[in-house]
Amino acid sequence: MAGKAIRARGVVQGVGFRPAIWHLARRCGLTGEVWNDGEGVMIHAFGNAEALERFIARIPRELPPLARLDALECRDLNQAAPDEFRIVASRRDGIATPIAADAATCPECLADIADPTNRRYRYPFTNCTHCGPRLSIVRAVPYDRANTSMAAFAMCPDCQREYDDPADRRFHAQANCCPVCGPSLWLEAAENSSEPACGATGSETRMVPFAPSLSKAAGDNSRFQVKPLMHRPAQHQRLDAKASAPDLGSMDDVIRQTAELLRQGRIVAIKGLGGFHLACDATNAAAVDSLRQRKRRYAKPFALMARDLAMVHRFAAADAAENLALQDRAAPIVLLRARGEALAGGVAPGDAKLGFMLPYTPLHTLLMQELHDPILLTSGNVSDEPQCTDNDDARQKLAGIADFFLLHERDIVNRLDDSVARQMDGEIRLLRRARGYAPQALPLPPGFEQAAPVLAMGAELKNSFCLLRPGQAVVSQHIGDLENAAVQTDYRHAIELYRQLHGFRPERVAIDLHPGYLSSQYGQSLAAAQGLPCLTVQHHHAHLAACLAEHGVALDAPPVLAAIFDGLGMGENGELWGGEFLLGDYRSFTRLGHFQPIALPGGGQAMREPWRNAYAQLRHYLVWDELLAEFGNLPFLQGLANKPLATLDTMIAKNLNAPRCSSVGRWFDAFAAALDLHAERADYEGQAAIALENLAAAAFAGQIPYPDSWCPEQTCGISILNWRGLWLAVLDDLQHQRPKPQIAARIHHSLADATVAVMAQLSQTHAVDTCVLSGGVFQNRLLLEIVADQLRERGKTVLIPRRYPANDGGLALGQATIAAANVSLD
């Protein structure tokens, strides 16, 4: 009889990996043991050589749904074999194995809640080792129930038997619970409303009939009266589960009441998996408009939840890949092309896309089964603030927004926004990486096996941070915009939690080059407090490196070309960059070209008022009086005449709050303003550019670039793109009243033409055939696909972010790999 010691590394704890090994070993006729430890899972297996070989080969093919195997290492084992295969106690000797991401309800649990004979029938907190909460409930490691928010709920005997049985899929499922011993659900009216609270536990359900549904057109704000089912349960009151078991029928009534409230046009704050959401009927224009006003989110599209794919297809087009993304266990919001039946106009004003997700918890599943139309499901917060996670906090902050609160008493320990994805260039690509993906680790490419631990702080907007250690990087969930004080607090808490969860002690800190970023300032203070070196990383170099790391490009690989287009980032000498052509690798980069730097009159104000960018571009490229003489009858130019142009001229001439910037984001804003798209004000970042993309999509096929729309000017060996020709062509088309969708399409084609031409020329000059496309601007599907296609037609290998956002949400990964790569250069 032979023996093997088998080390499994990856996402192998808390996901049913040991029971899967137990089952597989028994089927292969082996004896031995399996246990968790600080490095992952260790297996000692004994049997004949053929059975052992078959067993090892089958491990990667028979992983449980949430497991990810990064490495399987084997060595011979010379010791006595036990008489059976057992799961034995964990051995805690360090922390090196990751916690799994939260996962959508698995098919088996969906079957449980649909089966009237099952004890979890219609129970809204059903889960197992294949699904349910993970990061959202964990407080510390090891990932045991005592270190999660489920510690407040003592398992009943039935749940404990499942938890202790290796043959059960709930073996060591830390969130395991049932109606007898788990969280309960109740409904409350907002304190500023006249409705009494509704609750759910063992008391009798008593309520008067609901009033007739609100008219979707009229938006009647009349109230109806509901008698309370009971007072809301005190937090963590049921450690003696049997003594106060909730009545499942009452929770079911609460779900049905919530569905009726939504049908009647009410706004309900729902406590979900990683935070609160605000929900209303997505077909009810009055309800949607009311939510926009109360939340103070006046234009940005809202997310939607549909019961199933059939409901999604009533309102949006989805191909096979998009359907799979919707059904993925991460359950992201997927941006789809709107078509078919219409939703309320306020769901996604001016946008041709709809962001749909499917139910990812039993609570959402049961609620959507009661509804015939999608619901709007947006973050439970006031605009720009972080999503609420605590019941009392939500009652206070959302009282002026929500009419009712659907609550439970399982604490959300870690805030997780919904992830967002879009199919572009034939792949589903993440635009926001959060619930369902974080904190999955990325195995790093060859050369990083012995990398020194790095804490990378990320950017100012769309922040995430990164923990890099030998061989892998852990990028946090989307944290948000650090300009908000509450988000900063959340950021600091999350960094400390991740460090504790991973036993992480950085040897250096990496920050963005911009000294004004709050992430940079906090990184400097952490480094100083711990006596660590602090490395500043150029923004666009970090975008490049993040893409290389995701695609597994080795540390010692030759440099690549990159087009990095975004809003802005600080350059090497304090300038503002944003339209960059780079040659680089992890260790260094060279700037080979960029867009013409144009003033941002008003600084941050220019980012909110696109007309300022349009004026600055026109003023730079053209003589203003001559421009007015030829095109002065254009409404756009007539509108500029009413602006304080003399003041802007002084600001630009004297460089007073008018920094020059090569940003492609501001370039898009300028042309959007010329086409009267949000010229006066952009209500959210990228709104004008998104509107230009939507407009162009209607006429994109068959259009060609404007001739002579751009030209490269050489300065000190760097190519600078001049766009005077494009401005003249666009103004001429506007003068001749050519269709604006056609103009928008030709603007996109002209930008793509310039990008491909510059990349092709640089590729030939520097003998480099691998090209990176990254930065937030490349979330423009039209631009990304035409540039990528044309580069491939020229024989280039094109690398584009997919698992990590091309925007600043992926920046920390690049910072971390650059810092690790440069340790040897210190």
Q: Please summarize the sheet with the most strands.
A: 11 strands, mixed
Number of discrete helical segments: 24
- The tally of strands reads 31
CATH topology of the largest domain: DHBP synthase
Terminal CA distance reads: 52 Å
CATH architecture label of the largest domain: Alpha-Beta Complex
| Fraction of residues in β-strands | 15-25%
Overall pLDDT confidence: 91
Low-confidence stretches: 194-245
In total, how many domains does the architecture comprise? 4
Question: How would you explain this protein's 3D organization?
Answer:
This protein has 4 domains: 2-87, Alpha-Beta Plaits (2-Layer Sandwich); 185-310 and 332-408, Alpha-Beta Complex (DHBP synthase); 422-546 and 808-825, Nucleotidyltransferase, domain 5; 598-768, ATPase, nucleotide binding domain (Nucleotidyltransferase, domain 5). The chain is an alpha/beta fold and 826 residues long. The protein is built from 24 helices and 31 strands. Helix 5 crosses helix 9, helix 19 (664-674) crosses helix 20 (687-697) and helix 22 (740-766) runs parallel beside helix 23 (781-793). It starts with a strand and ends in a 5-residue tail after the last helix. Mean pLDDT is 91; it is low at 194-245. The chain is globular. Strands 6, 7, 8, 9, 10, 11, 12, 13, 14, 15 and 16 form an 11-stranded mixed sheet that branches. The chain has a 7-stranded mixed sheet with strand order 28-29-25-24-23-30-31, sandwiched between helices. A 6-stranded mixed sheet has the order 17-20-19-18-21-22, with helices on both faces. Helix 12 links the parallel strand 21 and strand 22 (534-537).
